[in-house]
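Subject line: Sequence and fold of a protein, written as structure tokens
Enclosed: The protein record, placed directly beneath this head.
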Amino acid sequence: MKKSELKELYQMMFPDYTDIVNITQLQNMLGISRHLAYKLISDGYIKCIKIGTGFKIPKVNVIEFVMDQNKNSN
């Protein structure tokens, strides 16, 4: 994905969320269970940073995951 495309998507997708989200916010963004959210992270589908016992997930990584899923479903 080109940088310009990502920037445009970043402004359009999930505008109500901050640049860094947590597991609960990830669940709400994708409409998934807590278990699936942790599985996507542990399997490397969504990249994040672990700080202590919590995960910090850059919103851009969630957008990239969603776009990859759209490409794979076509």
